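Propose amino acids for all 221 sites.
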C-alpha cells in the first residue's frame, strides 16, 4: 500500500514541531526533500542489490521487465525510466530446435573493444554479451534478436499540491502525487527526510532525533 503524501507531511511536520521550534518548510522545500529522501532510500537498497545481489522488499516494487527486439545495429536505447539494470536474457533456439532463454553476460565498458574485435572472445547467440554506454546498451552479436530486460525503474516523484483557501494552501488530493513505496517504508523515508530538514536549518537536536529514528528503522543515511 502506497504512502499518502498528505499523511506523510502531517507526520514529519508533527515530529519536527515536537523537537524544534520556529522553523517551517515551504511547500517547494517539502516536495524537494520528499524526493531527495526517497532517492537516498532507493540508492541504499540498490547498493545492497549491487553488492549482495539481493533485492529488498522495497526495491522489488520498482523492478520492471521489458521484452523487446534489439535493432540490427545491436544498440538498444535505455528505457526512459531506467535506473539500474538487474539482468538481461535473450531468446535462443538450440540445436534441437527448442527455444530457451539464455543470460546475456555483462561486460565492463573498458573491455568491450576486446569482445568485439577478438576471435577468441567472440560472442554468439548462445553466449551473448552486453555493455552499457552513455545513451544505450550495446549487444554482441548485433543480431541478438529479442531480449528480456529486467531493470529497476525510477520512482515517481512525490508531490504535495494545494489550492488557496482563505489565503492558505490547502491539500489538493486530485493533483497531488503519493509515494509509491509500501507503507512499511514510511519510517525509513521519514527519518532521512528529517535529517535533510535538520541539516538545512542547522538544528542539532532534530539532527540527533532523525539519526536515532533512522537507526530504529535500520536505514542509515
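Proposal:
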Amino acid at each position: 500500500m502506497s504512502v499518502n503524501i498528505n499523511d506523510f507531511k502531517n507526520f514529519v511536520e508533527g515530529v519536527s514541531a515536537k523537537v524544534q521550534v520556529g522553523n517551517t518548510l515551504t511547500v517547494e522545500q517539502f516536495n524537494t526533500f520528499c524526493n531527495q529522501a526517497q532517492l537516498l532510500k532507493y540508492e541504499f537498497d540498490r547498493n545492497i542489490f549491487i553488492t549482495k545481489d539481493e533485492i529488498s522488499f522495497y526495491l522489488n516494487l520498482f523492478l520492471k521487465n521489458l521484452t523487446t527486439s534489439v535493432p540490427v545495429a545491436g544498440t538498444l536505447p535505455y528505457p526512459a525510466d531506467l535506473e539500474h539494470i538487474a539482468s538481461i536474457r535473450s531468446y535462443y533456439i538450440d540445436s534441437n530446435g527448442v527455444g530457451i532463454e539464455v543470460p546475456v553476460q555483462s561486460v565492463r565498458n573498458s573491455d568491450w573493444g576486446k569482445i568485439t574485435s577478438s576471435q577468441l572472445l567472440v560472442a554468439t547467440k548462445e553466449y551473448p554479451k552486453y555493455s552499457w554506454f552513455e545513451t544505450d546498451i550495446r549487444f554482441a552479436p548485433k543480431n541478438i534478436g529479442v531480449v528480456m530486460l529486467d531493470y529497476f525503474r525510477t520512482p515517481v516523484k512525490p508531490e504535495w499540491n494545494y489550492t488557496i483557501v482563505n489565503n492558505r494552501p490547502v491539500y489538493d488530493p486530485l493533483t497531488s502525487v503519493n509515494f509509491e513505496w509500501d507503507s512499511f517504508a514510511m519510517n525509513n523515508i521519514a527519518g532521512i527526510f528529517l535529517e535533510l530538514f535538520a541539516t538545512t536549518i542547522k538544528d542539532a537536536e532534530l539532527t540527533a532525533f532523525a539519526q536515532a529514528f533512522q537507526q530504529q528503522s535500520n536505514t542509515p543515511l
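The longest helix spans residues 27-52. The longest strand covers residues 82-93.
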